[in-house]
Each structure stands twice: as C-alpha cells, then as structure tokens.
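To whoever is on call:

I kicked off a structure prediction for a single chain this morning and the downstream step that reads the tokens threw a length-mismatch warning. I double-checked the sequence; it's 783 residues and nothing unusual in it as far as I can see. Pasting both halves so you can look.
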Amino acid sequence: MRAQSKSAAIAACIAFAVLTMPLPAQTAASPSQTAATATFVPAGKPIDSPLNQQLEKIFPEIAQGYLDLNGNGKPDVTADLNETIPESRIKDGQLRSQDILDFIVANWRFISLDKLKAVQAAVKSAQGAIGELIAIDYASALDDAVSQRAEMGDSLYLTPEAYKEAMAKLGDIITAMATAYKKEGQKAESDFVSNRDALFAMLEKGYPLPEDIPPDERATLSTAMINTVMKEQKSSSVKTKNAIKALGKLGATESAPLLLGLVDSGDYQIEAITALGAISYKPALPVLAKIVKSSKDPEVGKAALRALGAIGGNESLDAILDLLKPANKTSLNKDFVLPIAQALSGIAQKGNADQRVQAALKDLAASDDPAVRKAAAAGMGAFATPASSDALLAVLSGDKDPAVRAQAVVALGRQKSDATVPALMKVLREKDLDPALAIATISALGDLPSGSQAVSILVDDLGDKTQGVREAAAAALVKLYPANSPLVSGAISRALLASQDEVFLGEGSALLAVLADQTSLPSLLTLLQKPFPEVKRNAAWAFYRIRSSSNQRVMDELQKLATSENETISVRVTAVRALGAIGYDSPQLNLWQTLSTIAQMRGDKYASLRYYAVQALGQVGSGRPQAIAALSRIATKDADVDLRKQAVMALRDMAAPDQKAEDALAASYSQAEDDELKVLILEALADMGSDKAPGLAGELLSGKASLALKRRAMGAISQSASEEAASALIDAARDAKLSDFAEALLEGYPSSLMSSFVQRRLRTETDKDAISVLESLDSHFAQ
C-alpha cells in the first residue's frame, strides 16, 4: 500500500484533475444521478478563536458558513461545486479552523494567490498550544497549494457550470458595450459606461475574457481598453492593470506601441511586458532582451524572459541562449534560471526544433532547483529524438523529486514511444510511490499501444488507497480495452474472483460495467454473491448494459436481488432495471408477476423501486394480458402521479390492443391531474389502436397546455384516420401556432375521406386560421 502525506494528496488531486476520467457512477451510463442543484444549508457557525478571526478577515463569508469560490457573492451548491464548508472533524454544528483549512486545501484552485498567501501567513503566525500544532499540521499542504496556485497564474478558477455562466454574462456585457458604441446618444453613453464598469468589476475579481468574442465587439473592446490605459494610468492602477491584461488577452496588436511605451514605466512594466508577449509583438524583442540583461528588478527581468519565450522566433531564442553562455553564466541572476527554462520549454513546445534548445534544456535538467528541472523535462518532451528520450529516462530513474519525475513521464508520453513502456512499468512497481507520479505514469501507459504489457499492474492499481490512482488506472484500462479486449476483461475478471478487498471489488466491478464485455458474464454472476452492496449494484448495472438474455441463471439471480428485502434499494432498483433492459421472460421465470408485485408495494422507501418495476413490466410483459391489467390498474388508480405516468408510458410502448385497458384509460382521462398525463393517455390509446383519443382531446387543445404537449396530442389524434380525428385537428388549427402543424398531419389522410370532409367543413367554419388550412387542404386533395 502506498503512503500519502497531505502534500502528496494535493499533488494527486492536481494530476487527477488533468489526467483522469469520472467514476462510472458519475457518467451518463450510471444508474444513479446527483441533483443538479441543491439548497445551501450552512454546516455551522465558526467558533470564536484567534485563527478563525484571522480567516474571517480574509474570507468574510465564513461567518455564513461558506467560501465564495466562484466569486459571485453568493453561496453556490451545484452539481460541480458545493461552497458549503463541511464539518470535517467533529459534527456539532460548529466550524473550527481545521474544518475551514481542510476546505481551503481541498479547493485551492478556486482561491486567489494573494488570499492563499494570507491564509498561509495567518496559519504560520497562529498562537497558543493548539494554534502551533495547526501551523505544523497544515504548513506543508498550504505551501504546496500556494506553489501550485502561483503556477496557474492569477485567473479565477471556475467550475464548468460557473465558467459557462460567467462567459455568458461577460459576453452580454461586451455585446452591450459594442451596441452602445454603434448607437451613440445620451442613453447609449450611459449604457456604455455602466457596462464598462460592470466589465471591470468582473475583471478585478479575476474572471477571464471569453474566447469567442466577435471581431466587431473585439475591436470595440480593444479600443475601450486602450482608452482606459491612456486615461486611468495615473488615477486607477487596478483598472489600468486589468485593461493592459485584457489587451494582451485580446492579442490587440494596435495597442503594442502604447504598451511598449509603458515598458519604461515603473508602475506597469510587468503587465505591459506580459501583454507584449501575449500579443507576440516581435518589434519588442530588442527592448525585452535589453531588460533581461540590465533590469535591477528581478521580477521585471523574469517577466521579460517569459515574454521572450511567448513571442518565440530566432531573435528570442538568441537572446535567451546568450544568457547561458559560459561568459554570462557567472553573472546570471539565479532568479532568472527558472524563467529561462520555462521560456526555452515554451519555445520547444511551439515546434522549434533547434538543437541548441535541446542541449540547453538537457543542461538545465541537472539544476539544483526542482522547478527548473521540471520545466526542462517539459521542454525535452517536444523533441521526438532518441537523445531526448534518453535524457528523460535518466530524469525518471535518477531524480528524487516526484513532481520532476511526473513531468518526465508526461513528456515521455507525449513522444508516444513504446520503448518507454518497461521504464514506466518499473516506476509503478516502486514501493511508496508518490500518488501524482503514479497517476501520471498510469495515464501515459494508457495512451501507448504497448501499454497493454502493463495491464496486470494497472488492474492491481484499481485497489490503491488513493482515489486518484484508482481512477487513473480505470481510465487507462478503458483506453487499452478496444485493442486488447480479451486481455483487459480477462485480467480484471480473474483479479476480482480472487479478491475479498471491498475497495478493489468496487472499482473493478464498476469498470466491468463500463466495459460491458459479454465474456465477463460468468465473473459478474460470481460478483453478485459478494457481501458488498456496491459490488452487487455494479454487477447488476453491467448486466443492464450487456443486455444478454442467453443465460437463464442471470435472470434468476437478478430476480432474487430484485425481490430480496435484505438488499439495499439501490441494488434492487438496478436489478429491476437490468431485468427490464434484457426484456426476456418465460413461463419458468414469470418475471411479469414478480414485477407486478413489486410495482404494488407501499411506502415512500419503495418509490424508485416501484417506478422502475413499472417501466420493466412494460418491457417484459408484452403480449401478457395479466401484465397489461396490472399496468392498467396502476395507470388509472395509483395515488402517485409519476407512477401513473410511467404505467401509461409502458402501456403506450407495449402498443397491445386490450379493450379493458382502453376503457380504463379513457375513463381516467378526465381525472388526470396534469396535461402531460392527459397527453400520455392519448398517446397510449392511439398506439393501442383505440379510436377514443379524438373525442377526449378537445379541451386540452383549446386550453393552456404548452405548444409541445398540444403537438404531441395532435400527433396521437392523427393516428386515427377518421372524420372525428380530422375535425379535432381542424378545431386545433384555430390556434395560429398550430395551424401549419395540423395541415401537415391532415395532408397524409386519405383523399377519399378528406375531399368531402373539407367541403362540408368549409361551409360552416368561421375561424380565419381554420379556413386557411381547409382551403389549402382543398387545393392539395384536388390535385
């Protein structure tokens, strides 16, 4: 088993976010889904302690029990982010500083660098016996969080949902600015200023600009940012810096002369230099090279180096390599070594194959600074040469820093060389392997065709104590499966049959469900006998996905699970869904009877079980009058409206003529609680071949039901090619929104029926929309 410190845990999370896929239980194929949104319920109030007081100064919202990770001024509880601070230690309705720090460490990506540094400082200066212990306990984790956040830059980190929301809002603001600029006038002036202020408010919080700004809006925005820099540089440094950053993000070449003038200004040097790099403004190269050599401020020099790397080209390369010449090395500021390595790495990854770059990166890979070695390794991966591979393998085998080794693995993976597989497998066999390094190595093997050599190791890693490692192993095996399905499926199955470890069995059975391999059926049957509910649920879900009815024992075992009161509701629901998906029944099984019994169970705890039993009954009960009768009873008499809807859908999908069921459905129509249920009844009657739908639908079609439901009702009515149906559709055509739809349906009716019907109806109809449809139909059938 691999040891894991708090520092390593953070590193594992970082790698996992980049390199792994979601757990099977979170995918679209999963039998259970979490709610998209939930109500914010604070876990508790912060206790009154000196450290908590310091943390509340940094995050005032802690007093309300949350951290504003999305930066939108409200507590968010969504499918991809919960800003509620949980009680991670003692469940007593109070938040301790350790609860808050656990939450900060887990969510460091969302927190700005300055706030993370403030937390770090507050923890390091914590007083008292307990405060000193907390400082020791969290020092390493916070150091890693600060370091990784610094590498990310100063942009606000957002979840996919929050990013989508923010980009939509920013897009609306920018569009409003461009529209106001085109209109001019007093109101346009006011609109422009208010939207510009709203834009800067979001930029100050760290929100990035959208990627897909239309050219005309981009031009207006660029001009607005140039104007801001010109007007505000002496009065508002914050607004000016954000405007400069925006110009770089926009790639606004027209702003380059202005930015170049700011390079000599002490207030905005770094921002201007960075923007020139983002714009790739080559005329700035001589100025940037001069700054690197002569600037007395290391931060300015480092910014110039990064800009040189961003601009690229031979002039940039010459300027950077000049710093590494033996004559200049002795006087080189040690703070410049890392940005030099990063710049050369960036140049290499942009496709510059200059051998001088490879040689320089190889030298930098021997630096005493792990960050420099890591940057050098990233750059060497861009050279698909034996020399580069050898250098990276040397880093992998000889470096002591896990992060550097992980970067070497990523670089080797980029080269796509199967020759690296033995070295990667050797890494995975190491004891106490750092989780982030393990994840990177596993992911690299998953991307290589010869990674199948490591299948047994990857299967073993499904039982690792670190969740990120387990997930990376599952993702790699999924990638290797298409070309090596017998090998992958067989290795997982054999290992599962030999294991009693709950974690491994859970991960392995979930993976078999994802793969849905027919050859795993015998193993899945055995897994149903394991004592762990999650393993049984995964195995049942695998049967749902495989959908093979060729094995009688599969049906027997699923039926046992579905009816056993000793199993969890989740297991029973999944078994029922599998039975329905397989869709097979026989006189020996009598599944329809089992499902009918389950569908009639009482109690809220059985609600989901009943729902899926009704669905499955529709899938396996076709042609059985008893199943139709059971569904008819539920569809017309059950107190649960959602269950009634599902029963009606089941009858609709079975499309089996049954007079008693038709009569019961028609009789229940007037008591149906909502319009959707009424439409489902109409559809079920139509699909059963009944002629009752047209006579029932009039009130719904003339009422306040949605357009979509009315169209569905009309579609059901149209299945009965009768005068009653045609009359109901013409009545519906009195609604202008439905007239074209009605006409299209009626054009498919027999001309022998419609010719006389249209003539008679034209003599009595008074509504202009209906008359228009009738006249069009008259012309159509005359032809």
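Update from on-call: the warning came from a stale cache, not from the record. Cleared it. Sanity check on the structure: Residues 440 and 690 are 62 Å apart (CA to CA).
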